């Protein structure tokens, strides 16, 4: 069925500083699916996530991306967020001087404004924050901390999933979310992602290793190599990669 | 312009906004303390000279300044901090944003006299350039004649961080709001020193002014 397509990428080429990184990526994601994008370092995995989120430093030179039939490439990063895209960063950015509360309040109300809604009442906002922080086991005092400043690797990734829970995206892109996580933090993050998943949504899990995919089980697995998807299969491909490595696929 | 004299043991907290006349000299006597906050809003050209003299042991002076320029303002700030006797502390923190075709000049000098031992004196000036046509010139200087002192100065001129902006935008925050948040958080360490009674109102004024500059740039 064509109408259950959530994301359609066709012939995507993208460059950074005149160096071509993505060299013709095709990818179709249906509602309810979790896709894993695996690949060696330098294959273009992070570029794919950055291009989906609209990072200005990347230039799309050919191809198209449609999210629920809308032309994603015509939208600014914030418009993409309003349309339902969320990128969990491999390296979450520190924003000195801006508290998590202020950051999330601005973000939530921007989403609401994008949908023509009034800002959330202060009390309702704080209640939502408390609930979602508890969901990823973040201590309440983090509400007053500056965004990611002085956070451990695990705290940064939990903060990403907290933000994801607050914004409730249609398409979550997790870029190397497992890097720098111990097993407990990995489990909290993965449980969070699984709990937020519904048949109406989709997720792209970008990772180098099998580890995260033991917790977030993909429906489809792609191997990205030298800017192209060279292999697509079911979840059994994860074990094959673990056994043979990327070079022998 | 008159001198402002801080008497022995006295504590004075002053905020100067556009239009207020600064004292020609601030003189702080033994164990006196003065906190001064200078605020320069957009549209205001200023030529500020501030001369602070710490003349009694245990005297302390904290000078904070924020400026926001979005058009063709000319802001000139010159601070001379004189440590004349031992055991005095001073701190200067000036932060500002220069956009449009504005021009900011900052000259800050710490002068420590020969017998002003055990002086602690710090000075910082940090700037954000919003446009290629704006110009900031910062010249922090130390003149130290004593040998047992702790003094430092630092100055930076930078631009708004684009990684931060993309992170915020990926959460749905508009580019305009992202810039406003960045600038407010940059100026905040100065605004924190406004006495509580006026802080909220003046902070809102700054936020509105910053929002206007971002909106019109």
Provide tags for this entry:
heterodimer, A: 249 residues, alpha/beta, Rossmann fold, 6-stranded mixed β-sheet, 4-stranded antiparallel β-sheet, 12 strands, B: 217 residues, 6-stranded parallel β-sheet, 3 helices
Describe the structure.
The complex is a heterodimer of chains A (249) and B (217). By secondary structure, chain A is α/β, with parallel strands linked by helices. Chain A has one domain (2-244): P-loop containing nucleotide triphosphate hydrolases (Rossmann fold, 3-Layer(aba) Sandwich). Chain A is 33% helix and 30% strand. In chain A, the strands form three sheets. A six-stranded mixed β-sheet of chain A has the order 6-9-10-3-11-12, with helices on both faces. A four-stranded antiparallel β-sheet of chain A has the order 2-1-4-5. A two-stranded antiparallel sheet of chain A has the order 7-8. Chain A is globular, with a radius of gyration of 18 Å. Chain B has 217 residues and is of the alpha/beta class. Chain B has one domain (4-160). Chain B is built from three helices and twelve strands. In chain B, the strands form two sheets. In chain B, strands 1-3-5-7-9-11 form a six-stranded parallel β-sheet, with no helix packed on it. Chain A binds chain B through residues 53-57, 76-78, 80-82, 85-87, 89, 92-93, 95-98, 102-104, 106-107, 110-111, 114, 163, 167, and chain B through 162-164, 166-175, 177, 181-182, 184-186, 188-189.
